[in-house]
Amino acid sequence: MEKAILVNLATTRQDKIEAEESMEELVNLALSAGAQVEEKIFQNRPRISPRYFIGEGKAEEIARMRTERRADLVIFDHNLSPVQQRSLEKEIGGKVIDRTQLILDIFAQRARSSEGKLQVELAQLNYLLPRLVGKGIGLSRQAGGIGLRGPGEKKLEIDRRRIQDRIAKIRKEIQSVQKRRANQRQNRKESHVPVVSLVGYTSAGKSTLFNQLCRESAFASPRLFATLDPVLRRVELPDGLFFFLSDTVGFIRKLPIQLITSFRATLEEVEEADGLLHVIDYSSPHSGTQVEAVERILAGLKTADIPIIKVYNKIDLLPQREEFLAKNKFADLQSVFISARTGEGLPELLDKLRALVFKGLRVFYFRIPKDREALLESLARWSYVLKKRETDSHWEMKVMADPRFISNSQAYLAKGEEPW
Fold first, then answer.
1. Strand boundaries in 159-230, DSSP class E
2. Are 366 and 347 within one domain?
3. Same-domain pairing of 223 and 127
4. Do 228 and 206 contact (CB within 8 A), yes or no?
5. Which of 357, 381, 403 is the last residue of a domain?
6. Rounded CA gap, 228 and 202, in Å?
7. Which domain covers residue 394, as residue numbers?
8. C-alpha distances in angstroms, 46 versus 9, 12, 43, 106, 213?
9. What is the phi/psi pair of residue 291, to 5°?
10. Is residue 107 a contact partner of residue 38, using CB atoms and an 8 Å limit?
11. For position 217, which CATH number holds?
C-alpha cells in the first residue's frame, strides 16, 4: 500500500468552505485506489502559481514531509498542468499525481469488460500525451503504482507518434462498440420497450437499487466507482408491463474531461433513455453539492428532453427518519424517498416510473380470428403485448397501447375487464 500526502489549495472564501468537503472526497478516492493517507495539507493563497500550483515555500514543506513520512506519492485535489506536475516532481523528489490521474487509476482498476478497458486506456493516453515532453519521475523512474496503471510502463515510454497511433486504433475500436450499441438501441426502440437509466453520484446506491428492481446480483459496493460497465436488465411491473433498466458509471465533481470524452459509448445509453432515475444519497451531508455536480454533467449531455425522477436514497440512515417521512409524505411525481437496501419506498417508485414511461397508455383486450393472424404482428408493432393465448378459433390478447392507435383494430376489441 502506497503512502500518500494529499494537497488542497483554496483561492477564495468559497473555496475554503468547499475545501474540507473536497478533501474528504479525495481521501475516499485515495483509499479506493489503494493508498494509505499519511497527511492532509491545506493552503490558502490568492492565486495559483503557474510553476508549482501551490506556493514555493509550501512545495518545500511538502518535500520535507514526504521524506520524513516516507511517503510514496503526493496527490493534488486539483488538475495540474504538465509544467506544474514536472516542477513539483523535481522539487518534491517523488511521484506527484493530480485528481484526474487518481480517478483514471481507479477506473483502470475497476474496468472489467474489454470495452471498459479500451475507454479507460483512451482516457489515460489522452491525459498522458502532453506530459511526455521532458518525461517526469511519474513516467520514467517509477515502476508502477497509483497513477500508472492501465497502459503500463512500456506503453508510456514509447514515443509520441506510437501513442497517437494507439489512440487512433482505440478510437476505431470504440466506434465499432458505439455502432453495435446503436444497433441494439434501435432494436429496442422498434420493440417499443422503454429504457430507463440510473444516474447519480458515485456510491449513491445505484447498483443496490438496480439489484432490487431487477432481482439481480450485480456488484454493489460502498467503494467509489464500483460500477464502470453499463448493465441492462428487464424490470417487470405488477400489471405485466416491463421496461429495461440500465445501470451506469457514477458521476463525481471535477469529472475528468478525458473520461467524459472516452466514455461516449457508455454515456450514449443515458442520452438515449426514455427516462432517468437520479439516485441521491440523502443521508450524505453533501447531498446538495453532489446533486449539483450530477446536474452539471447531465447538462453537458443530450438529456434536456428526458423526463427524470429524483430518487432520494438511504432514508433508513436518516437520524429522524419517521419525522422526515411524515413531512415528505406527499412527494411530487418527480421525486420519491426510498431505501434501496431495505426496499422501503420501491412500490411508490415503480408507480411513478409506470406513470412516467407509460404515460397515456391503456389496457385493451382483443380476440383475433385465426384467419386474421397478420394482425398479431401489427399489434406487436404499436402496443405492449401483456398476455397472449390461443384457442381453437381465436388469438386472445391483453395489450397496453395508446388509444389513438387502435382504430384499425376496433372490430376485434373484446368487452369487459379480463373478459376471458
1. 195-200
2. no
3. no
4. no
5. 357
6. 10
7. 362-412
8. 10, 7, 10, 32, 49
9. -60, -45
10. no
11. 3.40.50.300
C-beta separation of 191 from 234 below 8 A:
no
Q: One-letter amino acid identity for 314?
A: K
* Residue 206 counted as domain residue: yes
User: For residue range 319-358, what is the model confidence (pLDDT) as tens digits?
Assistant: 877 776 666 655 566 899 999 999 999 999 999 988 888 8
Do 227 and 152 belong to one domain?
no
- Choose the final residue of a domain: 184, 210, 232: 184
pLDDT in tens, 220-273: 555 556 556 678 888 988 777 788 898 877 888 877 777 777 677 667 778 888
Record the pTM: 0.79
Burial 235-264 (b: 16+ CB within 10 A, else e): beeeeebebbbbbbbbbbbebbebbeebbb
Q: Are 251 and 294 in contact (CB under 8 A)?
A: yes
- Pair 175, 197 in one domain: no
Give me 54's grid cell: 501551490
- 1 and 111 share one domain: yes
pLDDT band at residue 416 using 50, 70 and 90 as cut-offs: low
